[in-house]
Amino acid sequence: MTTIQIFLNGQAHHIAQGLTLAQALEQLLDAADTALPYASAVNGEHVARQVRQNVILNDQDSITTFEPITGG
Predict the structure, then answer these.
(1) Is 63 exposed, middle or buried (0-12, 13-18, 19+ CB in 10 A)?
(2) For residues 25 and 40, is the Cβ–Cβ distance under 8 A?
(3) Which residues neighbour 7 within 8 Å (Cβ) at sequence distance 6 or greater?
(4) DSSP secondary structure letter of residue 64
(5) What is the per-residue pLDDT across 30-70, written as a single tens digit (0 to 9) for each?
(6) What is the superkingdom listed in this entry's lineage (predicted)?
(7) N or C end: fewer C-beta atoms under 10 angstroms in the chain?
(8) Rounded distance, CA 30 to CA 8, Å?
(9) How many CA atoms lie within 13 A of 27 on its CB side?
(10) Superfamily for the 3-66 domain
(11) What is the DSSP-derived secondary structure letter of residue 49?
(12) In whole angstroms, what is the distance from residue 45 CA to residue 1 CA?
């Protein structure tokens, strides 16, 4: 199995090549992190929750997760 290196919130991780953003987040985040709504970005570009399963990660991608900004 070929692996790639990605960065999740600044921390390096090795994951299987070909994983989607949704799959990687499921593997790398614990249940407490995913219990509340969160937003995600890959290389500084927002990725909507409904398309995370379509985004294939590449070597050296930088993923950021954060609380969504809400308000009036």
Answers:
(1) buried
(2) yes
(3) 13, 60, 61, 62, 63
(4) E
(5) 866 666 788 999 999 999 999 999 999 999 999 999 987 77
(6) Bacteria
(7) C
(8) 13
(9) 12
(10) Beta-grasp domain (3.10.20.30)
(11) G
(12) 28
Tokens 């407490």 belong to residue: 32
Q: Record the tokens describing residue 58, joined without a space.
A: 């590449």
Q: Which two tokens stand for residue 13?
A: 């991780």
Q: Please give the single-letter amino acid code of residue 20.
A: T
pLDDT at 7 over 70: yes
